[in-house]
Amino acid sequence: MKGKLIAVEGLDGSGKSTQVYLLKRWMELSNVKVFFTEWNSSVIVKKATRKGKRRNLLTPTTFSLIHCTDFADRYERQVLPLLKAGYVVLCDRYVYTAFARDAVRGCDKQWVRKLYSYAVKPDITFYLKAPMETLMRRIRLSGQPPRFHEAGMDLALADDPMECFNRFQQKVNDEYISMTDEYDFVTINAGLSIEELQEQIRDVISKKIDFSEFQWRTNK
Q: Domain segments of the chain: what residues?
């Protein structure tokens, strides 16, 4: 691959979307050829996913397969072509989101990994890790209660949505931790301020990727 792939993983409330956005702006201002993609955003399956969630039609297996379809569409039409074209591709969540969440929902871990076996390993994968108390506080301060599936309510871990969210995310976090060495995650303290967190992430990237190789060339 001519390009570089950077993935950012983390629990809900860890600030991963904010950090990826800031990374994208930083790279754009550095004249880097950069592309951004996020989990569960393919227009092909978005309507079906929304309908299945709204009617609570998704079993753990169908939930896994529909997300895999979403990823496959974006990977084939966006991620892979742009990596071959020499872009830095930023992913707000990658296959590890499926590995963690699907395992918690009871899917066989090896089966899930085989579903995504075609996907290349990122050059850098960040895992934004923060204490659950911090994440819970951020969710409460946002004023937006966790959505049904994001809270793991389909697993009936608790009657109260916030407590169910807490238990579900704890289990997902355990899965991420178990993958840290296997997939070479760079663990960053997500309890830091937005600015401190971004500074640490940029420092890691700067040491591993030479931006001069991925900058737009101007014809003189």
A: 4-212
